[in-house]
Every structure is written in structure tokens, then in C-alpha cells.
Design a protein that fits this description.
The chain folds into two domains: 4-279, Vaccinia Virus protein VP39 (Rossmann fold, 3-Layer(aba) Sandwich), CATH 3.40.50; 285-358, no CATH class. Helices cover 37% and strands 24% of the residues. Helix 2 (49-56) runs antiparallel to helix 3 (60-81) and helix 9 packs across helix 11 (277-301). The chain starts with a strand and ends in an 8-residue tail after the last helix. The protein has 366 residues and is an alpha/beta fold. The strands form three sheets. It has a ten-stranded mixed sheet, with helices on both faces. The protein has a two-stranded antiparallel ribbon with strand order 4-5. The protein is built from twelve helices and 14 strands. The protein binds S-adenosylmethionine. The site of S-adenosylmethionine has 20 residues, from helix 1 and strand 10.
């Protein structure tokens, strides 16, 4: 892997992606403005004024379709730039809405899936993200009387697509990078489930109030997807980058990234976030190490014995695939020119790993 990574912010409309070349993108992690969710009406109307007219005229179907046509432009341009074997991960929620006298669901996840099928992508099993709800007893419709109530929407989707055949790792350098990017066996078991409950919120980069206002997803969502679907040194793109969550996750995981965002007001939030990257990267590595230690204690308590020892860190691991896993922390971050950030890393040594697992101020999820 190169000594460091680069992260570029473009403040522009994602419908034109001329700064990206064909096949340059290894992974997309994103969440677009959600069609038919009121907070995004003006964003869509500024892309096409007919959308506002359709909404005002109570024509939900027309507004829904026209909003998706704008997103389709982004998906089509982006797809052309994804490498063979690259992944596209899209967080999206469906919308329920009353327009005029009609209340109905607008199935955003199905509409976007249709677009990627038409582009030729291979759909993969989706992840349902169970969103914690503040009002578990909330219902919509006719109370205790049948038959006119609607279930509440308590999940969002993470749609997963692959472009073309499985990625091939030919070169020795790439094979080694892949092994170094391994995750722990128990992380695999947890992350590759099709239901995620991310009640936890990263404290520093992930303020809930800012999240509600900007539609940001939790840091952990981007962090996991990047670790699951890319290698260190790969390039991750978020065309609807918002507050910078995907970029921050790419920074701490040793991936390069490109972040596109139409709202220039986000630049300040992103710069502010980059100041936390060094300490957050240490906390995340520490948390992974402590979680692994707890897992091994539990595993051996159940009379199972992990078969391998990690040659650098000296702790047990369950599979041979984990023996080249290499942890890194961010040692330096600088904005080397406007909106271009360069990040440098330090390998975690056995001494650092031992020190981390003895520290008690571990990352809290609330
Ligand atoms: C659902 S939010 C994404 C939030 C992001 N995942 C985060 O964690 O902050 C959608 C973002 O897309 C941006 N956006 C809307 N239309 C856009 C366009 N045409 N091009 C680029 N960004 C756009 C919005 O300003 C908003 O920040």
C-alpha cells in the first residue's frame, strides 16, 4: 500500500461526474436525498421544477418518478466509473406520504433496484437496517378497528450491487493488501447478517442533532461497509457525501475517497470532522482489539480453542485468514490544498496493541 491516502471533496452537483474516470471507483457507499420525503422536496425541485409542480398538484406518482429520474442520472454516470467486480452500497428508506386524499407508500428501494438491474448490475442480498424508533406504539390509520391501519416503517435498506463478475486479485501486492485488510472471524459473523441494529452512535463524528438535520447515516454504517467491501488503498466514492461520514470512515480505514456534495455549507462540518480523525482512529482500533479480546475469552470459556496465533500481536485468532490482519492508526492528516486531504498511517505494533487492551476509556456507544 502507498504510504498514505487522499480524500477529495467536490462541492458540486453529482449529476455530472467528469472528475472521475472510467473504472476508477472500487466502492460506492452513499445515501441519496430520499424521494417523497418532505425534507428533500426542495433539493429535487431545484433539480427539476416540474417536481414541485407535481407535488403541488397532488400528483405523487409523477413526483416520485421524476425524482428518481434525477437520481438515475447519478446512478448511470457512477456505474460507468465503477471497476469490474466493484460494489455499490446504497442506504435508502421508503417513504409514506399523504398527497391530496391519498396516503401510500413510495417504494424507493424497489425503484433504485430497478435502475441498477437495467444498468446490468448484479443485485446481492440486502441489509435491513432496523432504525430505533422513539415511538414504538405509534400506528397509522384507523386505530383498533380493521381494516385501514398501516404498519410503521422501522427499517431502511442498504442495497448492495456488484458490477460484473467477482473481483479477481491477481498481483502479489493486491493479494497481500487483501490479507492485511482482513477482519476478525467474529466481526464477519456479526457484519454479514442481513439485519443491522446500529443503535450506537459514534460520539465524536456522529452528533445525533446534526444527523437529524442533514440526513446523515451513522458512522458505523459506512465504516462496516468499507471494511466489508474494499481493500486498504482502494478508492471509495460518495456522490451524496453530506456531512462527510463516508470520507471519515475511508480515512480511518486506509482507503482513498472522493466525496461529492452540492451544499457548500457542508465544507465547514467536514473540516471540523477531520480534526477528530487521529483520535477517532485510535479509539476504533482500540475498540476492535478489546472486542476481540472479549470474544476470545468467551470462546475459550465455551471450551473451544482458536487454532491460530497472530504473529505480530500474539493473540489467538480463529482462522488462518486473520493472521496477516494489520491494524493501523492515523498518524497525520493535512489539507494539502483546498478540499484535498492527505492522511498518513502508523502500523499498530504488539506493544501498542497490548497497551490499548489495558486502557479502560474505551469508545462508548450510546
Ligand atoms: C441523505 S443525505 C446524505 C448524508 C450523508 N450520508 C451523511 O452521512 O452526511 C443526501 C445529501 O445529498 C446532497 N445532495 C442533494 N442533491 C445533490 C446533488 N444533485 N448532487 C450532490 N449532492 C446532492 C444533500 O445536500 C445531502 O447532503
Amino acid at each position: 500500500m502507498k504510504a498514505g491516502t487522499e480524500h477529495r471533496l467536490y462541492l458540486r452537483d453529482a449529476r455530472s461526474l467528469e472528475n472521475l474516470s472510467t473504472g476508477e471507483v472500487d466502492l460506492v457507499v452513499t445515501s441519496p436525498p430520499y424521494p417523497m420525503i418532505q425534507m428533500w422536496d426542495s433539493a429535487f425541485t431545484s433539480m427539476n421544477p416540474d417536481i414541485g409542480n407535481a407535488l403541488n398538484g397532488g400528483n405523487g406518482n409523477e413526483a416520485f418518478e421524476k425524482m428518481h429520474l434525477e437520481l438515475d442520472t447519478v446512478w448511470g454516470n457512477l456505474y460507468a466509473r465503477v471497476r469490474e467486480g466493484g460494489f455499490i452500497c446504497i442506504n435508502i428508506g421508503d417513504a409514506t406520504r399523504r398527497l391530496g386524499d391519498s396516503f401510500r407508500l413510495y417504494p424507493n428501494h424497489a425503484r433504485i433496484t430497478g435502475t441498477f438491474l437495467a444498468l446490468g448490475a448484479d443485485p446481492l442480498p440486502v441489509i435491513l437496517w432496523n432504525k430505533p424508533t422513539n415511538a414504538p406504539n405509534k400506528f397509522m390509520g384507523s386505530g383498533m378497528l380493521p381494516a385501514g391501519a398501516y404498519v410503521t416503517l422501522e427499517h431502511e435498506y442498504i442495497l448492495l450491487f456488484r458490477k460484473g463478475k467477482k473481483r479477481v486479485f491477481k498481483e502479489a501486492e493486491e493479494k497481500m493488501r487483501r490479507r492485511q485488510s482482513a477482519f476478525f472471524w467474529e466481526e464477519r459473523n456479526n457484519w454479514f447478517s442481513d439485519r443491522w441494529t446500529l443503535s450506537g452512535v459514534r460520539q465524536k463524528l456522529d452528533r445525533r442533532d446534526a444527523r437529524d438535520r442533514s440526513g446523515a447515516f451513522p458512522f458505523e454504517l459506512a465504516y462496516r461497509l468499507i471494511l466489508m467491501y474494499s481493500l486498504r488503498g482502494d478508492k471509495v466514492v460518495d456522490p451524496f457525501g453530506g456531512t462527510g461520514t463516508t470520507m471519515f470512515a475511508a480515512m480511518v480505514t486506509g482507503r482513498n475517497s472522493i466525496h461529492i456534495e452540492v451544499n457548500p455549507g457542508m465544507a465547514g462540518i467536514i473540516r471540523e470532522g477531520t480534526r477528530e480523525i487521529i483520535s477517532v482512529s485510535r479509539e476504533l482500533v482500540k475498540k476492535r482489539l478489546i472486542d476481540h479480546q472479549h470474544f476470545i475469552e468467551d470462546y475459550t470459556a465455551r471450551k473451544k480453542s482458536p487454532l491460530y496465533e497472530h504473529p505480530v500481536y500474539g493473540f489467538p485468532v480463529v482462522t488462518s485468514q486473520e493472521t496477516d490482519l494489520q491494524l493501523q492508526t492515523v498518524s497525520k492528516i493535512a489539507e494539502v490544498e483546498e478540499f484535498l486531504f492527505r492522511v498518513e498511517y502508523e502500523n499498530v505494533s504488539r506493544e501498542t496493541s497490548n497497551r490499548f487492551t489495558q486502557e479502560t476509556d474505551i469508545l462508548r456507544f450510546d
